[in-house]
Amino acid sequence: MIKPQQLIEIGLITATLSVMLGESVLATSSQLKTNSSSPQPTPIIIAQNSSNSEADRLLNEGVQLFQQGTAESLREALEKWQAARELYRAAGDKGNEAVTLLGMGRINDLLGEKQTALDYYNQALPLRRAVEDRGGEATTLNNIGFVYDSLGEKQTALDYYNQALPLRRAVEDRGGEATTLNNIGAVYSSLGEKQTALDYYNQALPLLRAVGDRGMEATTLNNIGLVYDSLGEKQTALDYLNQALPLFRAVEDRGGEANTLTNMASLQRSQGELTEALVNMEKAINLTEELRSLAPPGELRQTFFSTVQDRYQLYIELLMELHQQNPQKGYDALAFHASERSRARSLLELLAEAGANIREGVDPQLLQQEQSLIQQHNAIEHQRHELTRGQFTQAQIDALTTQSQSLINQLNQLQTQIRVVSPNYANLQYPQPLNLEQVQQQVLDDDTLLLQYYLGEERSFLWAVTKDSITSYILPNSTEIEAVATPYREAINLDNTTTVAQGLALSEILIAPVVNQLNNQRLLIVADGILQFIPFAALPIPSQPDTPLLVEHEIVTASSATLIANQREQLANRPTAAKAVAVIADPIFESNDPRLNSQISSENNPPSLDNLALARATRSLGLGDTAPQLNRLEYSRLEAQNIAQLFPENERIKALDFEASRYLATHPNLSQYQIIHFATHGLIHPVNPELSGLVLSLFNPQGESDNGFLRLNDIFNLNLPAELVVLSACQTGLGREVRGEGLVGLTRGFMYAGARRVVVSLWNVNDLATSQLMTRFYQQMLNENQPPIIALRQAQLEMWNSGQWQSPYYWGAFTIQGDWR
């Protein structure tokens, strides 16, 4: 069951106008926010006289931009209100300065910057008190309480709500009083004090009816229904939800309507009314898809989708329950389709945008601004790296971090604007997730079995799909699976003594149910949750605990089955690049590297395979505030030499030392190569994917510091129509995990740039072992004329069969993503 809705206000004071924004902003907010567990704002503008016409103009322009509710307009509103604030502060107008602070706080809250929002609200509070604006003070206290509530600090939230409540009553603000009563009720409900919550909701309801606020009345009715449901009074709960539904429709709050339909479906399911529940969930999912399409493209749309995943989960649960009751009705096929609809939608849209070339026809000045912001951001990050290598203070690091985040925000805003003005984007038709029949026709062949996993709170599911069949399986819930997968993942990531058999417990869960269908077929794995971090190739065959799945199967991974079909369609008629391979390896990372002070002479003196000290080096880079240890990866040089010698000299480029540079990696000439191979340190940022990337040479031949970070925004701007990109570095297959989207990281960047398939790693790979694996991989492709997926499998099998590299720690990290054909 979805959590109760809460309400937050923006007490904005303009100089010329008194207007309730009400439902228009409420509807927009439901696009920006997520599900019914997320607060729904009820912004208010109240008139107040001001003698500062310029500040008033900026304030009102900001209000209009806020009402538009797009990512771009919100950030523009923030700029307007910041400018207005400075003017009001200079004039000593504390009341209107507080107004701008409140609006700026609300925007930061919408954009997920909770601490920044708190800072603005806390600056507004003493200003409200200084001008004895008790109504504005109550609004500010309410909003501070709301942020603490969203941060999980329930008691602190209650303290602020309880400070706001008597002020509401003192100024006879019945609507505001109802807002705060509703929020207090929601906190008590989340704390399990249902009767107390009910008391507060019931106090709010007549106030809302008296002021005629049907949207907030609907929210409160919904919340009362949830309390009665938790108390076991199902029919009473349904009665309240049925009262809320027409009110949400009357005020055209589609987010509230979808939430209520979801709550009704959950309640009906608990009563065994599965068919009725399914009808409501289908309506809720359709509304959710509509709201998603209206949300601004990019991060806000992705954020919205991540927070409505509970709806898809309930929808899939219902369909699978109905399938158990009626196995011949095709409910499992509908559940599979729902699973496809619930994942990797932003990636599909990104690739569609890449194919449409949305920057074509855009004002060159906007594109120049985009490049300028990327360059500024790279410069700031390079400066931050340089700073951490010497003496620094935390304040210096924090200042650069703030500048970096500001530039990321500006870049996101500008890229949204580019989409809006792009002629090609206006005509773009985004691909829709494929249903079962389409996946069977467009993705699968006679030799491929799709294993699609979905992890749920109650149960998890596995669909095994062939070209002409579907079989579904019920698995343990996500918590139980994580309890088995987490220790296995930790062991295989860190310990070179880990054996294949140590994955048996996980294999019994994930593979054993479907083992009789495997039949030596190619396995296309669409994973979910923690399973995205698991090397399926290294899992044991359940009946043969010491034998990895790799022995009997080629294994490909993908974010969704639809992605494979989409890539095939986009790249079907693309000409093959003229040259064979570009290998970029063994960059210079540290100022004490001997290559900076002498002629480079190691070309013909590769490192000895007996040098076990260097063999322990891993291709990883931390992203903390202190400088990471950037060990030279000498075996990446051996790897590059072994690969390059397999290709004719006129069809290859081998870039080592200073030449392994960011300049080369971003040069247009790189688009001439079918295979791009990077052998270097990888860096993954789990919070800001924009900071993820590869590390190339940090010094030029003159010994001067150089920006060698190839970050995700750089990669998105590359033109690499490559058949294969190999990221022979650490954790390059990882990224920020976003519900409903998967791992947001380097893979999608290179696919956007044009790569048909990408080889990536799941953990900190060993330098020497990786050079051995990659050499064998390319030998299989070139000497044995094998396609990449078979070549990678054969190379991993050779490693497993060797005495030295048998542990999956050495070879299991690498997986291939994309089309296997």
Automatic annotation (TrEMBL):
Disulfide bond is among the record's keywords: no
Signal peptide annotation: none
Keyword entries, A-Z: TPR repeat
InterPro entries (UniProt xref): CHAT_dom, TPR-like_helical_dom_sf, TPR_rpt
CHAT domain ranges (all copies): 504-819
Ranges: TPR repeats: 138-171, 178-211, 218-251
Species: Limnospira maxima CS-328
Protein name in UniProt: TPR repeat-containing protein
